[in-house]
Design a protein that fits this description.
Length: 265
């Protein structure tokens, strides 16, 4: 790798040629993304684990601030995700995973990334209102406040409505996650506007339902296995999930770089 390749620290990458509306990958790509994610993790396992621990501590600290803390963390999720995108790109280019990468989203495209967070938070509020309309706002209030006793008593006699409301919310969450999944990478690495990035992410996922189905099944199995050793396995599972999502972005939305083409030629 050349010096210019390893010195890149974030922002739109001129080496990544954007492919829109995104290519359709074969079903086996879901497994390939996981393998590529593992390779990225294996290049800097200690830094990955340290970064996940730091993120967990930050999330825990912000959750201690009633309501505002949780909302703020949700708003900043795309900004944080963008930092991991930078780390993945650096590792892919032969560089290092540095803690500084985690704040790349605060330095570049911050406003666009927060807009994505706002859309997700707003959609989440709408889903809560829909859920509340089905099950009654008494149980929703009990759920949000964490009052288990009130939650159980409010749920008595409305089991079917509770189930229906839950299924509808889950159904709405799927397209929302599809729109969010690749948006941070498309904004940071390709300079896309937030809404356009979310649209591209949604249709990119839609064009790859089969690979994502395989990906989801395998990662769910791995999540179950990760939970066995007192959840310590998630220190590996979480980085591989992040890195494999980056691998999927590269496979769906970008052309191979000149260096990658030279290797495969």
């Amino acid at each position: 790798m050349s010096a210019t390749q390893t010195e890149w620290t974030g922002g739109p990458d001129p080496d990544l040629k954007l492919v829109l509306p995104g290519r359709t990958c074969p079903g086996g790509a879901g497994w390939t993304w996981i393998v590529e994610g593992w390779k990225l993790f294996a290049r800097a396992p200690l830094m990955w684990i340290i970064s996940i621990v730091i993120l967990f501590i930050v999330a825990l600290a912000m959750s201690l601030i009633p309501v505002i803390g949780s909302i703020a963390f949700q708003l900043l999720n795309p900004v944080i995700a963008a930092g991991f995108v930078v780390a993945c790109r650096s590792l892919e280019r032969g560089g290092e995973f540095e803690l500084e990468h985690l704040i790349a989203g605060f330095k570049s495209n911050f406003g666009s990334l927060v807009v994505v967070g706002l859309v997700v938070v707003a959609a989440g509020i709408v889903m809560l209102l829909i859920f509340g309309a089905f099950v009654g706002f008494s149980i929703l209030t009990a759920f949000l406040t964490g009052n288990v006793e009130n939650m159980m008593s409010a749920a008595v006699g409305s089991v079917m409505l509770l189930l229906l409301g839950t299924l509808i919310v889950l159904a709405l969450m799927v397209p929302l996650m599809m729109a969010y999944w690749f948006a941070p990478a498309l904004i940071l690495l390709n300079g896309m506007a937030p809404i356009e990035a979310m649209k591209a992410s949604f249709f990119g996922c839609l064009r790859n339902i089969i690979p994502f189905l395989i990906y989801g099944i395998v990662m769910t199995i791995f999540a179950i296995l990760a939970a066995i050793p007192i959840f310590l396995g998630f220190l590996v599972w979480a980085p591989v999930t992040i890195a494999s999502s980056y691998a999927a972005y590269r496979d769906i939305f970008t052309e191979p770089t000149p260096a990658e083409t030279a290797v495969t030629a």
